[in-house]
Design a protein that fits this description.
Elements (H helix, E strand, L loop, with lengths): L17 H8 L3 H10 L6 H14 L5 H8 L4 E6 L5 H16 L3 E6 L4 H11 L6 E4 L6 H6 L4 E4 L9 E5 L1 H14 L5 E6 L3 H5 L1 H13 L8 E4 L3 H13 L3 H4 L2 E3 L3 H13 L9 E6 L12 E4 L2 H17 L7 E4 L2 E3 L7 H5 L1
Parallel strand pairs: 1-2, 1-3, 3-4, 4-5, 5-11, 6-7, 6-8, 8-9, 9-10
Antiparallel strand pairs: 10-12
Helix pairs in contact: 1-2, 1-3, 5-14, 8-10, 11-13
Amino acid sequence: MLWFGNVPNLPMKPKINIHEVARLAGVSKSTVSRVISDRGGSVSAKALEAVNAAIAQLGYTRNTAAAGLRSSRSYLALLVVPDIANPFWSEVARAVQDSLEGGGYWVVVGNTDWSEERELDYLKLFRTGRFDGLIINSVTDDIDLILEAGIPAVLIGERSEELRLDTVGTATYEAARMALDHLYGAGHRRIAVVTSETGSERFLSRRLTAYTDFVREKGLFHDPEIVFTAHLSTECGEALARDILAVPGWRERISAVLCGNDILAISLLNSLRAAGVEPGRDISIIGMDDIPAAALTWPALTTIRKPRAEMGRMAAELLMKRMAVPSRPHEKHLYPGALVIRDSVAGKRTIER
């Protein structure tokens, strides 16, 4: 119910405090405090069960603000992603939120929309000390700025040389090779690639490196005019379609396209079909991420699946471990991709037709 104007006088539910929980559970106040702050790790199983039962019966909720004042913590974590509208990032964000809330932390989500200026604004906010930790997919790749804050942080996204922060991501090089090998196995020899002009790909070029190695190893002709960069968005998918169709003799030079993510691939697929080019027959398209919409396109999109929820949960787990023990060794978790074969990639018969 939404109220406008003066809020009516409603009866207030009595606030349950820690003393009442301790009394009902038959334990000391300090035992209850340990349970709600340490999740029971330093009390007996019997006491833990009694306290949790009392909490459930009384409907006790922890006063996070008061706890923060006592411990010099805010119990707030900042999650910064480049595009919350992309289902990939919304699923990562949900997994982060579920995991951190289970550990007693609230999550504030910041969306940079691939803007370096907006990311820097969030990093300035982070450096004010209002947050206990940060999880970020960096657009600027300014690792030093994150480190200078002196607050626990976790990177989402591959950083091949970065060992100063905990990192969670996908093995991008291997995922790109998986996609390229699938196209090659289907008979494609004229493969275009689209990499991102923002984010970590701008600095590491893992997809482009995989593509260059692939072309060389397979003895294929390297055509620089079919190597594209684009913002990984719907709008740029439309522009990419125009760029592909503008390549002189594109039908003889491009038989397949590897896109940096599914959002771009789906937009490209739809834009080409609107221009009278039939994806899955006239040209093949493969994406990355396997967002839900990938299975609903026409034709359904072949792509590389990334474990979004697992990445979010691992990022949250690493952050909580880092907040608990700031001096622990840094960890890097790179998940493998999985090929999802659908109908947007033509087989040898169609290519040779």
